[in-house]
Amino acid sequence: MIRRDGSSKFGSNNRYGIFPSGQLGWVVNREKFFPKNKVLNNLKIRLSYGVVGNDMSLGDFQYESIITGGGANSYVFGNDQLAIGYSTTSPANPNLKWEQTSSFDVGFDAILYNSLSVTFDYYSKKTTGMLEQVQIPGFAGYSAEPWANIGDMTNKGIGVTLNYHKTFGKNFRLNAQGNFSYNKNEVTYLGQGKLYLNGGATFQNSAYPLTRTAVGHAFDSFYGFEELGVFHSQQEINNYKDKNGNLIQPNAKPGDFKWADLNGDGKIDQADRTFLGKTIPPYTYGITVNLGYKNWDFMVFGQGVWGNKIFQAYRRLDITNANYPIQAVNAWTIANPNSNYPRLSDSDPNHNFSYPSNFYLQNGAYFRIKTIQVGYSLPKMWMDAIGFKSVRIFGSISNLFTLTHYTGYDPEVGGSSYGIDRGIYPQARTFLFGVNVGI
């Protein structure tokens, strides 16, 4: 069922409704007043607006109160016979509807010197009524969290694409394309009086979630404690005092982290957590180069990101004999008192390892050569002799190398939690050889 406002009863498999949209374009160089020149060959200015709806592929009838039977719902009456009982697993939400994203875009397309194409876009997107599961108290008696439209979010940014193509003489061909984009993501509303939602990702035996979605910040940002380095001596512990002269970490030992007392109350607790970085990169870019010389062709494609963080979470804190990262070889000890890697302790009384903190965060920026390919097309006269239209022999390499400061397996982190590296197997470097035949 689709309402006129784009909302849905989620009783069908359709994901999108019918929403207003439109686009205007103006080819400026076709106007009489536009001066004839050999530099700017084409200029088109574009303006568009549209609204699209999304139901997040929710199951049918999520607006209803779902009833389930059996199990804990059953009951034994006086005749000692087990009776199958039924109860609701989540409350009804008759106001449930599709989330909507309104998009505004303004940009231009230009061609210079008949060889260089430039595309520029500025966009602004606002998503309203974001679909999220509502956290309800346990005493309500429900076993499932209902879906509701509880958030608004904006995405604003720019995108630039450059494409250069040129033929030099009769034999050499060049086509190069580069693109760059910047996106600012911000959560603007999470419901009446609601300032944040804790993320679902956790870190083994830590009591705190790794991320938080809060008004005024990017979606699902890293959230935790801020370590200020390692206490190298008892004297440094004694010097870390609050405004009243009391020790902030009286139980710390040399080799423990010095935690930032962000709220200034003289103690370290959950109120001292803060936003530590973005899980989603605000900057993305890529480059593709195609070269041709006679029957030879060459292609290289690379892409990268920057501005995000990666949480290196693959050390199992719940297994005391699990391997540490190689950096732990330089951990603080009495014989190595100047190290900034905290002391190793299975009990971890200062929570050096169990607190989610900037200690686990690394710069997620990278540039990776995704594909390199070389090919050779057999001469046409050979094709005529064997009766084929074309034969091309090629070889390619995927994931040739990556430029990054990230010390984990792969900065292009996969898995179920974005930006959290749990030791997912990295992308393999592959070699491929083949023949394309046209008949």
Bin the strand percentage: 35-45%
Residues in helix, %: under 10%
Spell the H/E element sequence: EEEEEEEEEEEEEEHEEEEEEEHEEE
Number of helices: 2
List keywords for this structure.
four-stranded antiparallel sheet; 3% helix; 439 residues; mainly beta
Verbal overview:
By secondary structure, this protein is mainly beta. It is built from two helices and 24 strands. The strands form six sheets. An eleven-stranded antiparallel β-sheet has the order 1-2-7-8-9-10-17-18-21-22-24, with no helix packed on it. A four-stranded antiparallel β-sheet has the order 11-12-13-16, with no helix packed on it. A three-stranded mixed β-sheet has the order 20-19-23, with no helix packed on it. A hairpin with a 3-residue loop joins strand 7 and strand 8. The N terminus is likely disordered.
Show the helix and strand layout.
Elements: E1 21-27, E2 40-54, E3 67-69, E4 75-76, E5 82-83, E6 86-88, E7 99-112, E8 116-133, E9 147-168, E10 172-189, E11 196-198, E12 211-214, E13 221-224, E14 227-230, H1 234-239, E15 257-259, E16 274-277, E17 283-293, E18 296-306, E19 309-312, E20 361-363, E21 366-377, H2 380-386, E22 390-404, E23 420-421, E24 430-438
Parallel strand pairs: 19-23
Antiparallel strand pairs: 1-2, 2-7, 3-6, 4-5, 7-8, 8-9, 9-10, 10-17, 11-12, 12-13, 13-16, 14-15, 17-18, 18-21, 19-20, 21-22, 22-24
